[in-house]
Amino acid sequence: MRDPRITQLARNLISHSVVLQPGERILIDLYDTPAEVGIALVQAAREAGGIPFVGLHDARITRELQMGGTEAQYDILSASQLAFMQDMQAYLAIRGSLNITESADVPPDRMKMVAQKMRPVTDHRVKKTKWCVLRWPNPSMAQLAGMSTEAFEDFYFRVCLLDYAALTPAMQALQDLMDATKEVHITGPGTDLRFSIEGITSEYCGGSKNIPDGECYTAPVKPSVEGVISYNAPSIYQGIAFDNVKLEFTRGKIVKATANNTEALNRILDSDEGARYIGEFAIGFNREIMQPMRDILFDEKIAGSFHFTPGQAYEGGTDNGNKSQVHWDLVCIQRPDYGGGEIFFDGQLIRKDGQFVVPALLPLNY
Asked: Which of 14, 69, 168, 224 is found 20 to 30 A from 62 (Cα to Cα)?
C-alpha cells in the first residue's frame, strides 16, 4: 500500500509548487525513484487537468554515458531534450541517487563538456517553465545524515510537508528588507565579508522551485565582493567531497581558494570566467533542517545558515549578470554550535548566531 504522505506530497507539488493548470503539459523526471512516486505524481497531474509526461533515469547508466560521451552525441541529446522541454509548461524532478558520488570518476573534461552541451536545456527549463526539484529519501541519504532509514524518512516528510504558507508574511518581510539594503557585512570564524546588493531584487522561496524550501536569495553586485569566507558545511560537487572550503575575494573575484581538495576546487573554479565570481547570496531558515548531510537541496536551507554561490546567477530580477556552467551553493552555518556569526544590512544587525533579531523576522527563527 502507498504511504499516504506520498500522495499528499504529490498533490502539494502539483497544486502549490508548480501550480499546474488544466491543459498544461508537465515533464516529471524521476532519478532512481520508486514507481509509487511517479504514479502518485501522474495521478495528481491528471486530477489537476494537466497532461503528464515521465522521464526515467538511472545514475549508473548516466555515468556510463558520460564516461565515453562525445560532443556529437551530446549535441544530439541536448537538441532533442531542448525540443521536448520547449513543449512543456511545467517541470518536476525527483532525484533519489543511491550513491551521491556516482559520477566522481568521470573525467573532468567530460563533465565540463556535458555541462556545456546540456546548459540550453537547463536554461530553458529555469526561464520558461514552472519548475520544482527535490530529492527522494533512501538509506544512502539516511547514512549521510547520521540517521536510521526510518527516522530519516520521517524527517524527510516533516521537512517537505512543512506549512510554508504560514511563513509567508515573515518571508515577505525579509525579501522587502533585502530589497531596501545596499551593503551587506557578514562576520564569523574565518569570515569577514562585505558586498553590495543595491539594485538587485531578492526573492523568497516557500515551497516552490525546491522542496524542502526556506530561503530568501539575491545576488551581490558582481565586482563588490571583498574579504574572506570560510564555509563550515561539507559539500559534494560533481561527485567530489569537499570540506573546509575557504575563498578570498578581491573586486568580486575569487583570488584564492583552498579546501581538503584544493586542486579539485580550483579546477571547478577555473571551468570558465564566471565560476570565480558569485551568482547568489541567500539566507536559509528551514527550522526542521539543523545539520548538513552533503546534499545541497537540504543543506542550503539549514536553520541559521547562509550560502554564497560561485557561478551562474539566477535569471530574472536577482540576476547580477554572472554567467557560468557552475552553480555551487556552498553553505556557512552561523548557529552557536558552529561558531556563531553575524549578518549586518547597512550597518544594522539582522541576524546573530543564526537567529533573526528584527521583530518582523522572528517567525523564521528555529
From this structure: 14
